[in-house]
Specification:
By secondary structure, the chain is an alpha/beta fold. The chain is built from 10 helices and 8 strands.
């Protein structure tokens, strides 16, 4: 009887340890990656949902309530979620807020604002928070999530490791596909003109020069002088196309198109929150196809 009771207690303990880990996500791309890694061993609460604006979102009381019971809150990091200190206070010491991008190498955010008459170029510096436009960065994120999940729920470590391995393999295949697609664009034409400085990581990984009129946020504005300077760059470099972005005001690019007669490419997905493309795979594939279609050799 005693041996049976001990066995029941032991089995109950194992069962409790192996329960799915509950996490909350502040970015749709991270939520999807978490599901890929965790599978049935994870429950993901999407606090920041597809269609939202990552640059202006802030959790409401109902959002904070939805995080109850979560062991981890997954944030993008790189100072994108300015509300994190307040959120940590609201959640209390028992919940870990993991800034996934914190351990991912940063690149500076740059916009082409010519305000220096001597060198004709003025750059706005600061870490670019849009780290998710790189397949290599998403591989890093997969490892970071798997390690964090394993630390929070050791009984599921093997499942998380297997999920991360599978996700990393898919990301490698996606990178190979992108490199093949992009190879049809002449190197001299690999200049990506967008309103906002959101594609620096993509440009670095795939050999493009980023040319942006504004800063990293959708609320940034540009003067007529900045627009004129961008028009000059487009003409001098014989740039084929400019690209609008989802959820961003196309006014500035409309003015540039009017001043150059340059082609307008398909709308790019900058923040990974589009309702029709809020996983890395769907966002990335859409952007690659749009860029290749506009810039490939005729």
């Amino acid at each position: 009887m005693r041996r049976t009771l001990i066995s029941l207690i032991w089995l109950t303990a194992i069962s409790l340890q192996a329960e799915p880990l509950k996490v909350a996500s502040l970015h749709p791309l991270i939520a999807d990656l978490a599901r890929q890694i965790g599978g049935e061993q994870i429950i993901v609460v999407e606090v920041m949902k597809p269609g939202g604006d990552i640059h202006h979102f802030e959790p409401a009381p109902k959002d904070i309530a939805s995080m109850r019971g979560a062991r981890l809150v997954l944030a993008s990091g790189k100072e994108l979620e300015t509300y994190l200190p307040k959120l940590r206070d609201s959640l209390g010491a028992g919940v870990q807020v993991l800034e996934v991008g914190e351990k991912i190498p940063s690149i500076p955010s740059t916009c082409h604002h010519d305000e220096d008459e001597k060198n004709g170029e003025h750059h706005h510096h600061g870490a670019d928070p849009h780290w998710w436009h790189s397949t290599e960065n998403m591989k890093r994120a997969a490892r970071i999530l798997a390690d964090a999940f394993s630390a929070a729920a050791p009984a599921n470590e093997a499942a998380y490791a297997s999920g991360a391995k599978a996700a990393i393999k898919r990301l490698g295949e996606l990178k190979s596909w992108a490199q093949k697609e992009i190879s049809v664009i002449p190197r001299g034409d690999r200049k990506l003109v967008t309103a906002h400085a959101a594609f620096g990581y993509f440009c670095k990984e795939y050999g493009f020069e980023p040319i942006s009129v504004l800063g990293i946020g959708r609320g940034d504005d540009s003067s007529s002088k900045h627009i004129a300077q961008t028009i000059q760059v487009i003409r001098e470099n014989k740039i084929k196309a400019v690209f609008p972005e989802d959820q961003a005001n196309p006014k500035v690019l409309t003015e540039i198109v009017r001043g150059t007669s340059v082609k307008t490419g398909q709308t790019l997905i900058a923040d990974g929150t589009a309702k029709e493309a809020h996983t890395f795979e769907t966002m990335f594939a859409h952007n690659v196809r749009a860029i290749v279609e506009a810039l490939k050799q005729p």
